[in-house]
Design brief:
- The protein is of the alpha/beta class and 664 residues long.
- Helix content is 54%, strand content 19%.
- It has 21 helices and 22 strands.
- The strands form 5 sheets. The protein has an 8-stranded mixed beta barrel, surrounded by 4 helices. Strands 6-7-5-10-11 form a 5-stranded mixed beta sheet, sandwiched between helices.
- Helix 12 runs parallel beside helix 14.
């Protein structure tokens, strides 16, 4: 590959000036010899002919009168001329010998620098002789040298003066402005402080300078915009857009720095993984705007609960990480966790007139005991957080080595649950709701079970929490709806009828905008009649975001689907919402039935619910009836519809079929 050479502007201009001025001068000097010779030789020839003619004139009379002395004097006089180095005369008479005179001091005897000219000598047409003069031709060379010196001096002076003038003009009008443009452009490119240059020039460089000023101003503006946007992008990349807390990326950087410092100084750090309990219910029932307001309140409380030197970040929807510097003891970390939980437990207004109480589960991992790097420590804190959820939520838990086994088991359950939904391992059992007076089946509630290929029949408590955390609960809810409608159609084909089938739906399913369309398809596909399908929802689901719930309930009524409120009495909503939503059925939670009739408080609460339902013309079902004393108290309180192990346990469809009334 050819090597590329680059020349600076100064070098290029110097070379151009040298070539542009020196080349013509050199050509002039090269051809000056020929030019001068052509101009000098005619002059010298004329001078020689004049000398020759004067010699002829001086010799005519001596030769005519045959005066040898006069002839000699004439020849000597002719020889005295500086340009004559030899004279030869030959008389035109018989026996005459040539007469030659030569100047010994001249150097033209060698013939190298001599020019010989001859002319006849005549008088009145009579030939007297021939005069031959040898002229010194070195005179021509001397004249040529003199002229060449003169030309060289003039050309050199012209080159020097012309080059100086040209270089001065080029420097003043080209190099200097270009250097200024270069400095200006470099200042713009390197973002150094620079002033707008006032170019008092009307040429192209002046125009270029004005353009550069304009370009510099535009570049400054663009760079300022870019800096502002880079700052904004960094803010977006490093901070959560809602709470303005550091996000996972920035938290990782800070942790890496703090971990290195703690390792050098043999100090301990504590990483807290905070997950809000049942935050999805708030989002699903009250809406995302209320959820965002709650998250803002939570972020403020978390920051207020720790020291200014500690770091709080939001890593996902309802998950936060806290880094406690200088966690000198386990007891100090426990105090922080307790302070966090107490702060979060206070109610927060998330919508006009609506308060939401939120709790959190906190997992704690210590550095360096529980992990040497960020990812490992976060994973262990996450495991500890799930242990806190399993132990009743609204609590904290420190990481223990055995949690790895539990996490692996939970992940394996998620994988198996996906396979169970896909391969049909889920089944429905049905528990009758009976008339407590006669034992006749009034309706049935469908309860999902998992027929595990290795572990056998699994009850909801073992897998529903995993399904809720992983989001699989939505698919399970849809499967339950279709399986219940399909079983209803099968019973009717066999001449049996359950009265109605109740299906438990999660808040995710109830708030799904596609629920009505899905139910419409199922009702049409399986011929479900009016009142034959009941949707059971928990009180916390149906009693929040009443406007959206009311629209969904009205759409369900339009399809002939009834609504039952499950676990009534365990929620926190106003009873006024019950009047607005007007469900068909209330189910008294088993926690109020368990101690009947011995607990006076439970007796009062049950009677209050029954009185409220009677006033609103709502059916009531008592759950968890397991003793005759409970049955008798409920019947005495006019609660006829009962459900519990006293009457019947959940059973497969083929076993309960014989208990159903005939149809049609």
């Amino acid at each position: 590959m050819l090597k590329r050479y680059s020349l600076s502007l100064r070098q290029l201009i110097l070379i151009a000036v040298a070539v542009g001025i020196a080349t013509p001068a050199i050509l002039v000097l090269m051809f000056s010899d020929t030019i001068v010779r052509r101009s000098v030789e005619p002059i010298l020839d004329g001078q020689r002919r004049a000398v020759l003619n004067l010699g002829v004139i001086s010799l005519i009379d001596p030769l005519w009168v045959l005066d040898p002395q006069a002839t000699e004097r004439a020849l000597d006089q002719l020889l005295s001329d500086e340009s004559v180095c030899a004279v030869t005369m030959l008389e035109d008479r018989p026996g005459a010998k040539p007469v030659r005179r030569a100047d010994k001091s001249t150097e033209c005897d060698d013939g190298k620098h001599m020019r010989q000219m001859s002319v006849p000598i005549k008088r009145e047409g009579v030939a007297l002789g021939t005069l031959t003069v040898d002229f010194d031709d070195g005179e021509t060379d001397r004249l040529l040298r003199e002229r060449q010196q003169q030309i060289a001096f003039i050309v050199g002076l012209q080159v020097v003066l012309g080059g100086a003038v040209i270089l001065l003009v080029l420097y003043w009008r080209l190099v200097r402005p270009i250097e200024a443009l270069k400095r200006h452009a470099s200042a713009i490119a390197s973002r150094e402080p620079h002033l707008v240059v006032d170019w008092h020039r009307g040429d192209e460089l002046g125009e270029l300078g004005e353009h550069l000023n304009h370009a510099g101003q535009q570049i400054d503006g663009l760079l300022a915009d870019m800096e502002a946007k880079n700052t904004q992008l960094r803010q977006m990349a490093m901070y959560d857009h809602l709470t303005q807390l550091p996000n996972r990326t920035l938290f990782r950087e800070v942790f890496t720095h703090e971990a290195a410092f703690a390792r050098r100084n043999q100090q301990r750090l504590a990483l807290l993984f905070v997950d809000l309990d049942r935050f999805k219910n708030i989002n699903d029932t009250l809406g995302h705007a209320a959820g965002d307001r709650l998250l803002l309140a939570v972020s403020e409380r978390l920051r207020a609960a720790v020291r200014g030197s500690d770091l709080v970040c939001r890593i996902s929807g309802d998950e936060f990480l806290l880094l406690l510097r200088e966690a000198s003891s386990v007891e100090s970390v426990q105090l922080v966790a307790q302070r966090l939980l107490a702060s979060l437990s206070e109610g927060q207004e998330v919508a006009e007139g609506q308060l939401a109480a939120v709790s959190a589960s906190v997992g704690i991992a210590l550095f360096p005991e529980d992990g040497e790097n960020f990812d490992e420590l976060v994973r262990h804190a996450d495991m500890a957080m799930y242990r806190a959820k399993q132990t009743g939520r609204a609590s904290y838990s420190f990481y223990q080595a055995d949690m790895d086994v539990e996490l692996a088991a939970r992940l394996e359950m998620e994988r198996e649950l996906v396979e169970a939904i896909r391969s049909g391992q889920l089944v429905l059992h049905y528990q009758p709701i009976v008339d407590g007076r006669t034992g006749a089946v009034a309706s049935v509630e469908s309860l999902v079970r998992w027929q595990h290929p290795q572990r056998g029949l699994q009850y909801p408590g073992s897998f529903i929490p995993v399904a809720e955390d992983s989001g699989l609960i939505r698919e399970i809810g849809l499967w339950t709806l279709e399986a219940a409608c399909q079983q209803l159609a099968r019973w009717k084909t066999l001449g049996r009828h359950p009265g109605s089938i109740a299906v438990n739906l999660s808040a995710i399913n109830f708030k799904d905008s596609a629920l009505i369309d899905q139910l419409t398809e199922l009702i049409q596909a399986y011929g479900v009649g009016k009142g034959e399908l009941t949707i059971e929802l928990t009180e916390s689901t149906v009693m929040t975001d009443t406007e959206a719930s009311l629209k969904t309930i009205q759409a369900l009524r339009g399809l002939g689907v009834s609504l039952a409120v499950d676990d009534f009495g365990t929620g926190y909503s106003s009873l006024a919402y019950l009047k607005v939503l007007r469900p068909r059925r209330l189910k008294i939670d088993r926690s109020f039935v368990r101690d009947l009739p011995d607990d006076p408080d439970d007796c009062v609460l049950v009677k209050a619910v029954l009185g409220l339902a009677e006033a609103l013309d709502i059916d009531v079902v008592a759950e968890g009836v397991e003793t005759e004393a409970q049955r008798d108290f409920l019947l005495q309180a006019k609660c006829v519809q009962q459900q519990g192990y006293l009457h019947a346990k959940p059973m497969p469809p083929e076993q309960i079929g014989g208990l159903l009334r005939t149809w049609p």
